[in-house]
């Protein structure tokens, strides 16, 4: 299955350091070990984040730009993506590597991710429609679709995937291994949504279980942010701007379709949106669990740092004298 996703070479750990292709190569004997430390790399990303934020805020004080931002609120959201992308470039410089997870040659994963996200959202809405809990009562031709696509779709997909999968998951995985990285990444992703207007503890837990696990598992399988961004974009855009559900407790429930949800909150998700529906939790978590099973079956998990070190030392000590150098 991983081969069919076109990711086997990127996902399988390298013999030299037992890490996948989206991690900087750590040769034996170690060279510039400090530079490849997860802590140093995290500091590099945070430094880039701070500098980029300062620059963006400074540019935003230019009168013409400030006026444009006041008239078009989505421009402010767009700066979040720019800041995250700039900080990620700083991280890549610290790591001294090419971003295999964003390789142009693997951009086809974006399309597959879009199809997957659209299919999952349509399936959840379809079930709600079938049981009478979702009904379209009209259309909303004046709905601001372009700002919604940018804010709910593009910015959320790019910025959040760069931060949670491109940075957090990779750095935790380098230190604690794949399983801990998936758990930490999923939990952090859920907790990050507690700041939304209509956030609930169940909603945050639901996102951690469904989206946090699924997005993390998909990244581990493919080692491609294209897949994750495509899935994230389509899932957000269809549930909100298209089908009219609230997105992650954002406080707004409107879209191109004017829709009504009825029934128990455990089924519809209530004011948080369909991400808090048991249907979404079961479907997406099950898919994420299946992907993680594939990861385990195909042996592409990354072991914790101390386990990798022990295995590499064992290889060196057991190698013939002429090959140990």
TrEMBL record:
<feature type="domain" description="CAAX prenyl protease 2/Lysostaphin resistance protein A-like">
    <location>
        <begin position="146"/>
        <end position="238"/>
    </location>
</feature>
<keyword id="KW-1133">Transmembrane helix</keyword>
<dbReference type="GO" id="GO:0004175">
    <property type="term" value="F:endopeptidase activity"/>
</dbReference>
<feature type="transmembrane region" description="Helical">
    <location>
        <begin position="107"/>
        <end position="131"/>
    </location>
</feature>
<keyword id="KW-0472">Membrane</keyword>
<dbReference type="GO" id="GO:0080120">
    <property type="term" value="P:CAAX-box protein maturation"/>
</dbReference>
<feature type="transmembrane region" description="Helical">
    <location>
        <begin position="74"/>
        <end position="95"/>
    </location>
</feature>
<feature type="transmembrane region" description="Helical">
    <location>
        <begin position="233"/>
        <end position="256"/>
    </location>
</feature>
<keyword id="KW-0812">Transmembrane</keyword>
<feature type="transmembrane region" description="Helical">
    <location>
        <begin position="276"/>
        <end position="295"/>
    </location>
</feature>
<feature type="transmembrane region" description="Helical">
    <location>
        <begin position="176"/>
        <end position="195"/>
    </location>
</feature>
<protein>
    <recommendedName>
        <fullName>CAAX prenyl protease 2/Lysostaphin resistance protein A-like domain-containing protein</fullName>
    </recommendedName>
</protein>
<feature type="transmembrane region" description="Helical">
    <location>
        <begin position="201"/>
        <end position="221"/>
    </location>
</feature>
<feature type="transmembrane region" description="Helical">
    <location>
        <begin position="143"/>
        <end position="164"/>
    </location>
</feature>
<dbReference type="InterPro" id="IPR003675">
    <property type="entry name" value="Rce1/LyrA-like_dom"/>
</dbReference>
<dbReference type="Pfam" id="PF02517">
    <property type="entry name" value="Rce1-like"/>
</dbReference>
<feature type="transmembrane region" description="Helical">
    <location>
        <begin position="42"/>
        <end position="62"/>
    </location>
</feature>
